[in-house]
Amino acid sequence: MLKLAVFVSGRGSNLRAVHAAIEDGRLDARIVLVLSSRDDAAALTWCAAQNIPTASLQGVSGQDLERTMLSHLESAGAGCIVLAGFMKRIPSAVVQRFTGRILNIHPALLPSFGGKGMYGHHVHEAVLAAGVRVSGATVHMVDEEYDRGPIVLQRCVPVMDDDSSETLAARVLEVEHALLPEALSLLAEGRLELRGGRVYIKK
Ligand code: GRF
Fold this sequence. Notes:
alpha/beta, seven-stranded mixed β-sheet, globular, two-stranded antiparallel ribbon
């Protein structure tokens, strides 16, 4: 069983999707910790009602960030990390400790529309401005660069002529909620193989 730490900064709909997949048996995992970058993340209120252990990293930075993260992860006994809308960079000591066991969900088809500044509505506005006909969601392994690690799963959605960034975001979010538990299942089943900078999915 995967012992999951979920990192959040906001509303936590992907966290709830992961939790739902665990509850209905699609994902063999337990959420041992939810770590938030902010004290006021809505996700934390939801966790309190579910009795899920939480911690906040608000006001923690630099060397302290690395130390604090590692100590929370260790005391929770976390075996892997999911970034579900987490707005801080992961310190390299954490990336190294959890290589191949940190997944991030991004609301576009990487490597397009990712990197610094590409979060929230900015992503969907950039997709609309580019005039591409498809967007989607990407789950990837995390390395030290924003949105650059090896891709695990991707799924497309169409971009419609009359889309606003809100309507596109909603279509992508629905796909995210299915894709993230699927990727975590593959990880839980030991089916993700990282080789030469690429992820292979074992049969
Ligand atoms: C999602 O769109 C995710 O792809 C991105 O941040 C958003 C988080 O939403 N990284 P939520 O907090 O899971 O609702």
